[in-house]
Fold this sequence. Notes:
Blueprint: H1 2-9, E1 16-20, H2 26-35, E2 38-43, H3 46-58, E3 65-69, E4 83-89, H4 98-108, E5 109-121, H5 130-142, H6 146-150, H7 155-163, E6 166-172, H8 174-197, H9 205-215, E7 221-228
Parallel strand pairs: 1-2, 1-4, 2-3, 4-5
Antiparallel strand pairs: 5-7, 6-7
Helix pairs in contact: 4-7, 5-9, 8-9
Amino acid sequence: MEGKMLEALHCAKGAKVLDAGCGTGHVALYMAKEGGFHVEGIDLTPHHIVKATRNIQLAGMTNQVRAKVGDYHNLEDFENADFDGIYTMETLVHSINPREVLKEFLRILKPGGSLVMHEYDHPRIELAPKGIADEAKTLNSVVCMPAFESFEMDDLKNLAQEVGFENVVSKDMSKNIVPMLWLFFVFAYIPWLIFKLLGLQYKFVNTTSGVGMYVGRKYWRYVQVSARKPL
């Protein structure tokens, strides 16, 4: 999905781009290598930044990619109109206040700068079968995804428009990730059954969420929301 993200950013080589929730730095490195961007990565988890810094050094990309501990709810370290582009890769779902995050993104983007978000949304969760709905709510709590629980269909697109972005487009990209989820499901289903029998499924959240997302794939979407800051 990094290629789809790069294509949607429409940033020129040498652009300064923020990776908001960079994790261990793999997407930032891809953007720097393939797009020629200078990428600033922030992540709330210190051990992610330790690993990201190591990955950047191993890739020989310290001149193009930097990573530091930071919270996308509070971007006061960055000046107004500081970035040509900003992206999130499945990280805004962890926000406790996505509206304020989007306002901050708008502030630090240059006029005409682009924002691309690859995130999840869903129809009203109570419309899903009870077992799937209950599992989703529990997982949202365990893996700290309050925004995902609140992101009903097109909410993210609407939020971006409300805070002042223009040319906001939402694309359903679910078909691009379902094959990967199916493969994960094939390999993880038996371990997940064992974990569930032992009452340990929420200690193995990646396995549980992967199985749950494939089983409940009719009740969520993987969306790309792209937008621009007005000139």
